[in-house]
Amino acid sequence: MQNKGLIKVFAILFGLVCLYQLSFTFITNNVETNAEEFAVQEVGEDVENYSELRDQAEARYLDSIGNDEVFAGISYNAAKDKELNKGLDLKGGINVILQISVRDILSGLANDSKDPAFRKAIAEADEAQTDSQENYVDLFFEAFNNIPNAKLASPDIFANKTLSDEINFNMSNEEVEPIIRKKIDESITSAFEVLRKRIDKFGVTQPNIQRLGNSGRILVELPGAKDISRVKNLLQSTAQLEFWHVYKNNEIGNFLVQANNRLAEMKRTQEDVSEETDTTATSGDDEIDELLADSSDSTEVETGNNPLFDLIVSPGFQGGPVIATFKVQDTAKVMDYLQNPQIRSLLPSDMRYAKFVWGVADEDTQTTGLYALKGNRNMEPPLSGSVITDAQQTYDQLGRIAVSMQMDGTGAKIWEDMTGKASNEQSQIAIVLDNIVYSAPGVSTGPISGGRSEISGDFTITEGQDLANVLRAGKLPASADIIQSEVVGPSLGQEAIDSGINSFGIALILVLVWMILYYGKAGLFADVALVVNILFIFGILAGLGAVLTLPGIAGIVLTIGMSVDANVLIFERIKEELAKGKLQRDAIKDGFNNALSSILDANITTGLTGLILFLLGTGPIKGFATTLLIGIATSLFTAIFITRLFIDGYGKKGKSLDFSTSLTKNLFTNMNIDFLKKRKVAYIISGLFIVISIGSLITQGLNEGVDFVGGRTYTVRFADDVSPTEVQNDLVATFGSAEAKTFGPNNQLKITTKYKVDQEGAEVDEEIQRSLFEALGAYLPADLTYEEFTDGADDKQVGVMKSMKVGATIADDIKNASFWAVLGSLIVVFLYILLRFRKWQFSLGAVTAVFHDVLVVLGIFSLLYKVMPFNMEIDQAFIAAILTVIGYSLNDTVVVFDRIREYVNEHSSWALNKTVNSALNSTISRTLNTSLTTLVVLLAIFIFGGESIRGFMFALIVGVIVGTYSSLFIATPIMFDSVKKKSSIQKKEKPKTEEAATA
Description:
By secondary structure, the protein is an alpha+beta fold. The chain contains 31 helices and 23 strands. An eight-stranded antiparallel sheet has the order 5-6-4-18-23-20-22-21. Strand 21 (739-742) and strand 22 form a beta hairpin. Helix 17 runs antiparallel to helix 18 and helix 29 (912-944) packs antiparallel against helix 30 (950-978).
């Protein structure tokens, strides 16, 4: 090997760089361990809310020493920015995909147009979106263009004042469309920036936010985030801040009296009608019935004569902005009363646009105040929050938490006019955020100039900070709904780390010991190269800022098997050269050279499937693909160069190096199995497996996870063992459809429901989670609160440990992407093998074997998912396993094909069947050795790697077994049988052997 000195220098320098990159992780781990110990000493377990208080103490400790030097001039804060990133499954946190509403953006661009053609196109696009993979804007344009004579450039649609500089009345629909697409893209970009600013202010370390194509979807990953409800509110809040003039309660009081009397009259009329018709109150579809529904579930006793007044808890102060105070549970009923057309008709003409809204609810009394805003024809506020240029959490004159804000020049002028009017009329201005009045201060000092003002209300510090962050970052241009989310509790993440490290350590030890037992000192050199390989992988991950996930750890362990495969190929070829009587130096040189082709082909095919995974995968799957790709590159370098450095260096000292031990010296030598003769039996066996698999897939199907069908899953841990059947029955009673399965220990269930899968929004998520808590109440500790059930405490042992939500639309997208990923990998590999071997027969054999492997794995999952004691859902992780199986199967097949090609060139006079059989027998040692080593590694992860990855590992184990079988008994025989003239694949053939070759 030439340039050994350069390779040594590079390996040493690269190793030092990797150690340097990993040193930041060691520094942060040590400091954070000290912080945890400090928090434990500071707050005892006997203190109420000790977990939350410990988190705060830990945060204070880290803040206090953040910029202090820890080692060699490196501070904790500096090291934190460069440490090895851990994914959600190892650290806990939240991962969401937000859908920015393109519908809202279109409506905004059209100034909420009431044009019939526009509204019809919107409605049709809404309907088509439920089962279409097209972008919403494409569906809208398609629907609009199908409406006769409909023009996008109508003054009632997009040719309005706002877009007058870009769209005029004479433009065709084709000319308007690209302008609207550009505006939508700008709005989504604006939403992305708003979210990024909010996240930056949230204080989560190593956040990740990225746009997903042009669909209006934004991925947000916040590892380590614990207050999940706060994060969700922050991400989805549109922050529609508005300033309105407000009516005093005495101005609206007369209307309230008339409304109450009219409601009482309507109720008496309804009762009279009911008596005359001798019917019970069952006409649920009647508008008045709905309006005046009996409120017998209320704790207040109603007289029946005052439908509205009987709901009032207390009247507002004379001259104040609060009309009256009501119970939160009655707000919907009160608003139904006030929005009824018969009741609104009682408003005086100068108040006909009054807008009724609620104030912030009092958590202690569960009451809230009713306000009446001075609306207008378009229901637009005199001043909106878009004029805010800065906002900070502060304190008002009474020491209460408040938010101060600064307006731009335009806003300051309008604000001065509004405050001047309120001062003259001795009235109030309501500060409304997302349709809730936070405060309605009066103005007694005259007009406020300069644009600086303050929002005060019943805030906590956190709420004040979040509100300031939202206002400072700006409002979202459209609503943002969480269509996919994954939440992992920190305690579950710590368990994943422990199980991942255990499986990694056990697999590594088994492989290191096996290599020494099988190859002796040469195996020891391979082990050193293997350890260097692992150092390189972790160093590169840290240097690139990549995220380490549990599947990522599995990917690293899998690359251990691949690294062993490269060394096995090299050592087996060296053994072959030594058996030919060559000198050790020459045998080592020729062995490395002869193995290089097979190593490169095998790793390139696996790398292609890894690349497809990386491009199409998200979250943990992308983490798996990242480590797999890095591992392929580093294992190639260490096997080809590092191992050889040791072997060549040992040989230069004049020492003899055996590539086997006394137990393995003659193992698998002089093999003479007639593989091709057994191909018909193999075809029958494989045919039966495929028929059974297809039959099971048709009749039983697969256990599709929420990734593919949509829904919500919760991993819930209980204090004691529970019966999944009993729990499932209770959940079905609540949700209509639900599934509960044991997930790991008997006190942990994986609960799945498709209840309201088509409905988005934080309110729906909250409703389902509360319903889940209530349905599981009988199995939970009596003193467990809802907050404790859902929170993200570090030491959490009971409650929701992990949750996931996938909307129906994105589930279809995931399923389609997975299908194309598998199909694309097959096409890419077919083309690669065709180019590499120049014979379509090789490609046909390889792809047939891969189809065989995929069908068998799918069939086994279909047959066994109801009886296996672990999760066997078909989800994105399973697709990653399938693609890995494809890569591994091809790895095996390519090594065999490479040897066949070599034998064809070396033994051109042999019959093809003899050539093929000899090639297969010569690679049997490598095939079995690599397969057994990889299986040992996978079994270690399967047994010790944790419940969440067990199904993934089972698919890989089945794939390795089936892939090894198919490379010997499917791929090669198919290639052999597809050659019409058995001499066509060889240079020439003697007549004597032609008859045997075609037998």
